[in-house]
Structures are given as C-alpha cells and as structure tokens.
Recover the amino acids of this structure.
C-alpha cells in the first residue's frame, strides 16, 4: 500500500503517514458501503442510537489525543482542538437523538377511504467530503446524521487533516459498534485529490454528496454532481462583519473583534472579514485591537499559553502575505503585524489593517475566490 505524508505545519516534518488511495480504492470503498447498506438500513433504530451514545463518551475522553493530533496536523491551538473534541462528541449525541425524529407525512388525497403517506428511507450510499479547519466538528457532522438514519457513508477527509477529519472519527464509531462497510474512509495524496473526488462523485451507487470547503472546489463538485443528476449539499463559507456603532461598549467590541478575527489563526469561515466602525470612534477603536493583536502569544500550538499558532501550510502563509502586501501597496495602513511569515514559514503575526480599499480581495464578498483565511 502506498502512503502519503501528513505534514506538521509547525515543525515542517511528517506528523504521520496515511494511505494514498486512488480511484480504484474509492470503487472498493463504495463496494463495501453498498454491500453493507441493506443490513444497516434494516438495523433497528434503537440499536443505531445505542452505537452513537457509546461513541460520544470516548470521543470526549480522547480530548488530549485530539489536541495532540490537531496540533500536529493543522497547527491548531489547544483551546480550539479541545472545542472540536467537545462539539464532536455533542454531534454524536445529537445524531443519537435524531434517530427517532425521522418523520413522514400524511398526504392529501381525493380518493374516498384512502390514506396516502410519505415515508423517509435511507439514500443508501452518501459521499462526505470535509475540510481541515474544524476537522473533528465538520468531519463528524458530515457523517453522523446519515449514519444514524440508516445510510452508509464513504468519507474523504481533507489532505491536511486526514486523521482528525476522518480516520479518528471512523475508529471511534467502529469501536462503538458500527459494522464493517457502513463507514469507509478514503485518504489520498494531494496530487490525486481531483481524481479521487471525481471518482467518488461519479459513482452511480453514490446517491448524494455532502461537501464543506472552498468555493472553487464546491463549484466543481456542484457541476460534477449535476452532470450525474445527484443532489449535493454544499457549505462554502461566509463573510462576517462587525459593526461598531456610536453608542457601543468599546471594550466589549474590541474583545469581539480580536476573538472573531484571530481564533484558529483566522482560518474559519465564522471569522470576521472586516470591522466597520462609526467615524467618531474610528481612531480610538483602531488603536485597541491593534495593541491587543500585537500582544497575543503566538508560536508552538502545543503550548497552552499560545493563542495564535501557525497557518495550515506554507502555501496559505504565502497567500496571506501576498494579500497584505498588495493591500498596503494600494493604500492600506498596517496598524499591527507585517503579514510576512516569521519563525517557521507558516507563522504569521496577527495583522490589523486600516483603509483597505472597497474592491480589494481582503474585503471581497462571499462569492469571491479570494479568501483571506488567516489572522488578518
């Protein structure tokens, strides 16, 4: 079996090796999911509920492992990784509760003495493709509800977090009693990602695709799924704005701006893209988050005192640096940070910019390809 390195963004070395699966491995995973689908769909709902209840506690109990894994895979700080562990466990509990919530409908009919009903049944095989930035949360969310309601799943975690986003979740559920073939994880080398995703989406036995990730990849998956006439659930992020009005509590607003901008090094779509401040408060307000940003501890994500760790890889760091440099060249002012990588080539000091032009990619709306995805 060929493998591919799972790289540590902080030290630059290999965190672990995972299988470098190909389109043929995708076919075998779908074979397994299809073969297991009938028995899993027929499994009593109470039994499926018990499996998810059994999985939730071990997920929470593995918080220390999850902190270590997420630091090694994506440079996540301890608080962010611990949050993933807690919410990942909660998602499994929510799936257990949802087992008994799948409802049908009584439909209108004009035939005397006839009752028409609509019942929900499993879709059989679901493809779940999840991102690296909240790997445990989004990986668990993609597979938990389909499995709980009787579907089988082929999951393809991000190349940047194959363990936290996929393999760890699969291990926890198998240990809790999910039968062989019901949940299948496919990992791959980055160079093979397009081939693997294409094979998964195109397989006629896959009835639905669930994808969370970038706009560019989401658009390609939507086109590919449409070509094969299958539904795709796409979550492609959002852009968030903080408004600071004239009567605002400035200290509270500063706390919100700093947390909203720099949690997980600014690499989640819930992060703030911009802060709009009333002109009478602009000078006073701007100085405060700039000072706070400059004082945030940054560095080794395994250090509990660190608030800002590395970004996910050197490509992300280079993209952020280029965006900041371009913004300054077009008239923006640096109030904190430089935008340039320091230490390892993935660590960027938190950046505060003022006066970014309206059409600059750092202020682009949610439809733009130019996502900052960093502590800016």
């Amino acid at each position: 079996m060929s493998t591919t390195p799972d790289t540590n963004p902080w030290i630059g070395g290999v965190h672990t090796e995972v299988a470098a699966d190909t389109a043929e491995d995708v076919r075998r995973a779908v074979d397994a999911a299809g073969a297991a689908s009938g028995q899993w769909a027929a499994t009593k709902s109470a039994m499926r509920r018990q499996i998810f209840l059994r999985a939730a506690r071990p997920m929470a109990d593995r918080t220390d492992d999850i902190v270590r894994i997420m630091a090694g895979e994506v440079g996540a700080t301890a608080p962010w990784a611990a949050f993933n562990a807690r919410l990942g466990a909660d998602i499994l509990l929510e799936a257990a509760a949802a087992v008994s919530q799948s409802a049908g409908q009584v439909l209108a009919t004009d035939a005397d003495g006839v009752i028409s009903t609509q019942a929900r049944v499993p879709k059989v095989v679901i493809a779940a493709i999840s991102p690296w930035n909240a790997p445990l949360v989004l990986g668990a969310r993609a597979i938990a509800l389909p499995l709980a309601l009787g579907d089988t799943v082929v999951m393809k975690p991000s190349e940047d977090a194959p363990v936290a986003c996929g393999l760890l979740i699969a291990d926890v559920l198998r240990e809790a009693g999910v039968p062989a073939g019901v949940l299948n994880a496919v990992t791959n080398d980055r160079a093979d990602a397009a081939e693997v995703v294409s094979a998964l989406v195109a397989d006629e036995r896959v009835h639905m695709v669930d994808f969370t990730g970038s706009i560019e990849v989401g658009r390609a998956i939507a086109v590919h799924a449409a070509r094969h006439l299958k539904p795709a659930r796409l979550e492609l992020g959002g852009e968030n704005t903080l408004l600071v009005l004239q009567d605002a509590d400035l200290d509270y607003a500063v706390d919100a701006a700093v947390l909203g901008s720099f949690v997980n090094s600014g690499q989640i779509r819930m992060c703030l893209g911009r802060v709009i401040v009333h002109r009478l408060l602009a000078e006073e307000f701007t100085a405060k988050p700039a000072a706070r940003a400059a004082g945030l501890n940054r560095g080794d994500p395994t250090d509990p005192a660190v608030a800002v760790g590395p970004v996910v890889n050197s490509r992300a760091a280079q993209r952020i640096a280029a965006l900041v440099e371009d913004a300054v060249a077009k008239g923006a002012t640096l109030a904190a940070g430089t935008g340039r990588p320091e230490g390892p080539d993935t660590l960027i000091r938190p950046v505060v910019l003022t006066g970014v032009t309206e059409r600059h990619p750092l202020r682009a709306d949610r439809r733009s390809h130019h996502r900052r995805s960093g502590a800016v």
